[in-house]
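Q: Hi! First time asking for a complex rather than a single chain. Here are the components, and I think there are two in total. Is that enough to go on?
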Amino acid sequence: MSTMLPIVAPKPDFIEQLLRDQHALSAVERFSLINEGRLSSTHSDAASYPTETSVFSQNTVGYQPAQSHYYRELLPASPPGPGQQYAFEVNLDKCSGCKACVVACHTLNGLEEDEAWRRVGTVVGSADQGYIQHVTTACHHCEDPGCLKGCPVKAYEKDPITGIVRHLDDQCIGCKYCTMMCPYEVPRFSERLGIVRKCDMCHQRLSTGEAPACVQACPNAAIAITVVATCQEKALSDADNVSDARLAAGAPTSRITRPTTRYTTKHIESYRAAAPRDIGLDQVAESHWPLAVMLVATQLSVGIVLLERLTTMLLFFRGETLSADTSRTAATAALLLGGFGLGLAPLHLGQPLRAWRAFLGLRTSWLSREAVLLGQYLGLLALATAMLWSGAAADYLPSVWIDALSPDAVAIVLTLAAGFGLVGLYSSAMIYIVTRRRLWRPGRTLPRFFGSAAAGGLAWAVPLLLITPSSVHLASAASFGAAILLAVKLIWECSIQLMTHLGCDEFDARSRCLSLGPLRMLTVASYATGSVAVALAVFAALFVSSMPMECSLLLGFGIAVLASGSELCERLLYFSSVTYERMPGSLR
Amino acid sequence: MNLMPQPNLQSERQRRTLPQLLQQRDGAMTRELLLHPGAHGLGMTHTTLAADQTTTAVCGYCSTGCGLRVHLRDQVAVGLTPETEYPVNLGMACPKGWEALRVLDSEQRATVPLLRTSDGDMQPVTWDQALRTFTTRLKNIQQQYGNDSVAFLSTGQIPCEEMALLGALTKFGMGIIHGDGNTRQCMATAVTAYKESFGFDAPPFTYDDFEQSDCLVFIGSNLCVGHPIMWERVLRNRHQPEIIVIDPRHTETAAAATQHLPLRPKSDLILLYGITQQLIANDWINHEFIAQHTTGFNELAAHVARFTPEFVADHTGLAPEAIARAAKCIGTGKAVSLWWTMGVNQSYEGTRTAQAIINIALITGNIGRPGTGANSVTGQCNAMGSRLWSNTTSLMGHHRFESAEDRSKVAEALGIDVCHIPDRGSWSYERILQGVRNGEIRALWVIATNPAHSWIDQSEARELLDRLDFLVVQDMYTTSDTARHADLLLPAAAWGEKEGTFINSERRYGMLKKVRRGPGAALSDFAIFRAVAHYWGLDEMFAAWSDPEAVFRLMQRLSAGQPCDITGIAGYEQIDACGGIQWPWSKGDAATAESPPTQRRLFADGRFFHPDGRARLIVADLTSMPESPDDAFPFTLLTGRGSVSQWHTQTRTSQSPLLRQLYPSHVYVELHPQDAVQIGVGNGDWVVIKSRRGAVRATASVSTTVQRGHAFMPMHYEQTNQLTLAHFDPYSRQPSYKDCAVSISAATGRGQSRPSSFRLSKTIKGDPSA
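A: Yes, that's all I need. Here is the structure of the assembled complex.
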């Protein structure tokens, strides 16, 4: 190669000079000075190039951003009066789907690298009619915001005058409950901050008379801010029409939160008949594993306590008593399980140190109620457990305390705990029921949550009873009960998940695509552990009384652990395979 | 205007608030999103965008040429917003423009020259080593196989000054004969059509025409997606215009049209002749204009006579009434403009189709007046610059290599010996690749383009790149599909890191500015070309080419007396101050006005650039689609732009995390619902698409945006061109990307994302929660 080396003698510093030039930004000065002059001399007059465009320079009063002449007509003339609020209005016929609104929202609000508070989905003609429409969507600043109702710490507020639903970033504990309560998937969780953030209609801009970022940036002036009447002001008959409204094909009914955004189009029939471009394309939802563990553990715990109470009561009527050892073992196990569950729950929070405010939402939020009730439950259970153990440690404790420990006192505390546990468990279920997601309706949530308590409680009762030799016959009964309940629950789950039956709707079908597709390992694990637990429980019911203690205990704990595992898988699927109505999206 | 209530109305708000201890209304996270009143005409501004100065630069993606207001802190760009008053975009930009700075901050930027070692790895080397290797290898190859055994492939993405320097360096300095640009893939057809019809490559329009027409016709153009900011101008039209869209697909633009003619693929020439026939038959033509300013009308009339609405309907699949209605709108409109893009250009009979459009404008007298014209909407930010200054097909400044007179004019203007100027033009892109196949081309220098992704019948292109003795790739990223084939990678500074001018679709020179430093040892393409000149031993020849503005002055000199005369432009500062300047702006023009009017169109006087001043009406016989669908490959594969947020081969746009969220990450194919049922796939299922060239997997996007028997795949994914058929317009040599036959079947096995599909036909009815 080098034989033909051409004669070149490059100057040694030639490249260095080029690199120095490349790294010098002096070239920009002469231009920016021009621009600065042009812009600064025309603050209120808007910058203008020498000709023609000056038709836009009509601002006269006060400081107006240069961009203001494009959006002046997209803002209302005055702030909302009583019974009114601000709302987005989208003229679909003007939207070409360019998504400048999304990027402007991201840029002008200084959001994270991949964060934007506006999204654009697409609907397409589903029959023979050629039709395509992009649908830009942000927070709908609902009249009855789900996010606000669900928030346990009052990190949302709806401005009484403008109606803007604002999120208080420094108040948020990152529980993500609003991401379930909002039917429009508006609040988005930020891993970096450990909180959610959402559109605030650029209220900082509106307060200076400036349009929100998306309104400013739409090349086609498709997004406007309008003043709308809130529903309370409308005649009741009007509300009937509203009741079946949806913002777009596939979107949830507007009855849930009464969104204020208005979409207008001349092609309303096509718009209604269209199908979302992402129809049938569901992503695996977040598994919320700390929540799943917390739910299953607290339900098992409550189940054990309830069983202990029930058994005690039944035996009482038969003139018998449950051995104190058994009660103590049960209470201790329930406390450990419940404590483990509630102890794990903060892992679900992005900002656990702020969680102490969780009582603030008691008036509207089931999450607040759950937190308070289950907290009470655990406190009472701890007290009861302490009382139960006091007998064993009587020698080391003050006599005043020992004297106060009548069996009645223990029974009252334990019964109170059971009561709080039961109501707490109901609150847990309501958290998900009130999201109005079809697959989380009462008929699907209550049997699961209470079923876990009953079947799981019975399964745990087996080993707990076996620890006290005198209760072996009860263990046998518990085992039998556990087998039946676990089997019924499994068959019920199976009929929903796997089989096409009459009660199966579109959401079940979509959910099945997930549970048999990307989540199939979890589904298999759920059924496998459950089935083995049932088989072992049947075996135990028949033979546990004739087995050596070590074997029966091993068997008992095996049943309990497998049943718990099955319930946990079921709960993970409950979260991750959920499908629901949503605003139109696009292919991923 | 204050849109928030007055303080006295806020008592209720205060009454409801809890103490700060319980409800943290302020804090670090709240302050993170605080906005401040911005200076420089900006509104409320986030800290990330706060500027101590702003400057305007023209966007570096498409040919719209939007002005972007770059926010500077200590002279460095920290952010950007669309320039409010720039006469092109009027304060707006598309997502690509908004994110133009973000793609510069990428881990994948090329920061040092990389040289392939004998064991195949790319090894960092110094610029000195890189340039010595460059000159040694290329000179050796030239010595062994002749000067024309080295070729270059350039781009429409670099400024005019860089194109001119590259063209001069290679052709006048290095003795290279063959070089072409990726503009061959987008604009060659329009160039050829204009040259033949008008006598010069002269798109006659200005964007104001979008607003002035009462009838706009879009042929093979999805303006909403391809040029969203031009669409902004269409929607600003206050004349309630008739919008006629001629496109086989039901695109966003078609959806917004008043008339959509969903013709069969590649039947546009028949339709245009049919419209012409109707115009003539109904006497909706301008006899005076035809007589004074055109030649060839009789031949045209005779040629189109047989294209009756019924005949055309048979061949296009349209209703005769729809054709007649469109013709009537065009014939009776007061200001009719006709716009075309890649649907016409990327076609095996594109030149004649473009000329059929030009014919319609000419015979109806719809040219030279506001709101009229036969208007080619260009693709890349500087495709128009490439047409004038790349020194490939035509001698720079739109001269002819074959003309001795032109050669001496250019030699004189540049102060070089005329013997350095070759007397023949370059091979086209496709011929250069054929040269590689034949062994005529042994080394290739690829600048800012990505043939390993974008070239038609891509697998062959990749094979040819590997066959080269030496492949130099000059790019801003190390990861482009073509960079992976390189023997030597030269790291280039990008848009925003250098200076120069772009020419947009409406012939407007706009300024590109240096507002970032460029990563590592990356150099602007201009500096790289200068360095090559230096190492090649051409310092003397290029002494005058010291910086971009010096080259601009040379360009001005070269443009003297041409239709694209820019001798009247005072310099970069004037371009900047005027919001861009359209060509022509000659010394004579400059003497009559202080500054150029913002919106100027050509041919107001009806004088065209042929020596006789008349435009030519050109017609041709129809040719048939070389690979029509058949039993084995029953679908016609259409290709095109998929979304506004993707640019070409995604080399740049994929570097923005935000843009990546705005389009599908994986290639998809649009299918008609009935075809999907027949194939047995649902929305989102994997399908296998096969052509005679290759097979790819894609997700099915089931929708009525395509007709039955058609499939559409976006060009942005590398899979698409594994299927396309290499065939070309015979006059422009532009590839015909939008017609080849494919088969589609449900994919089985690995990659099957879902166990059962959810059919599109199953729409959501009623309220399930009721």
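A: Chain B touches chain A through 158 residues (CB under 8 Å). Let me know if you'd like any chain examined more closely.
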